[in-house]
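JOB MANIFEST
job_type = single_chain_structure
chain_count = 1
residues = 377
[input]
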Amino acid sequence: MRNYGKTTLYEYLGDKVVYRNLEPWDAELPGLRQLATALGLPQGVIPRKNENDYARLMVKLLEAAQARRTGAALRQLVYVGDTRLLDGTAFDNLCQASRWPGLAFIAAENGDPLKIEIELHAQGGQVFLANRWAALEEFAGYVGDHGLPVDESTVVIVDIDKTALGGRGRNGHVIDRARLQAVQDTVAALLGPAFEPEAFRSAYDRLNRAEFHPFTTDNQDYLAYICLILGSGLYELEDLLKAIRTETMKSFHDFIAEVERQRAALPAQLAEIHADIFAHVQAGDPTPFKAFRRGEYLRTIGCFGQLEDSAPVQRLLDEEILITQEVRQAVLAWREAGALLFGLSDKPDEAATPTPELAAQGYQPIHRAETHALGAG
C-alpha cells in the first residue's frame, strides 16, 4: 500500500455531491423540492438510495448537471460502489429510470485470493463484483472493451461512503468507529451519571445486528434513541428484545409511541430530547436525532488528515478516514475522457456537513475535507 499524499474528493467531484437530503452542494443545480415538483412526487418526502423515486430524482438532477456543461445528452452510466445489495439496487433503478445502458463496479476488500464476478442486471446492465479495490483498473479497461467507451455522454456516479472515502474492507472501520463513538458520546452526555458504558455497548451491539434491522430499519438515529431510552431505565433490553421477537412491538414507530405515552416517567432533560425526536419522527424526518448526528460530524471530520505524511501506512489505515486512491485514479481518468462526475452519499447532511457556526470557523463538508489518499502501488 502506498500513501499518495493529501487531497479531497472536491478534486474530482467539485460540489456535484448530494447527501441524504438530496440537496446538491452545487447551488446552481435543482434541489429536492424543485425536482419532486417536476416529477409529481409528494413534497417533504426524502426517498432513500435503494428506492425507485430516488433514481427518478437523480436522473433529473444528472440531466440538469449535464445541460449546464454540454449540449450532449447522457446516454450511458458507470457506477462505482461498495455494497452488492444497496449499490446494486441503486444501479438497477438508475438504469431503469434513465433507460441508459450501464456498467457498475462494486468492491469489498478481503484477504482472499483475487476474485471477480460479472452479473447481468436490469436493462442489460452489468455489475463487476470484486474483492480488491485494485481491480478497478481492470474494470476501467472492461468498460471500454464492452461497448461503453467513456466520453461526454457518460455519467460516472461515485458512492462516497466506504467507496471514495474509507473503502469497504480496507478503511471503513474508521467510519464505523467514529459513528459509534458519537452515539456513545451523545447518550453519555444526556444520561449523565446514569450512563453505564457496558450496558450501552451490549444494547448497541445486539440491536445493530441484521436480525433487528426490520425493527430499526437499519437507521442509526433510531438505534441511538433506543439506546438512550434503555439507558434511562424506562425499558430493559431483554424485555424489548422479547417484544420485538414476539411482534408485540412491531416497529420503531411503535416503540417511540409507547415512550410518548410514558413521557412523564422520563427525567426532564430526557423528556425534552424525546419530544424533539418524536416531533421529527412524526414529520417523517429520517434523521430525527440531530444531537447525535452533529456529534457524528465532529467525530468523522476529526479523522480526516490529522496524521503527518510520514505516518506508517498501517497507522493511517487504523486512524484516518482515507480517500481510496484506486477510485480517485479511475475517476480522474474518466473526467479527462469527458464524463460527467457525480457523488452520492446516504449519510445524513447533519453528519456530513458543518453547522453555520462551525463553517464560520473553517470546518468543511466531508467532500471538501483534506485527508490522505491510500492505495495499491
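[summary]
The longest strand covers residues 2-7.
The CA atoms of residues 191 and 232 lie 7 Å apart.
exit_status = 0
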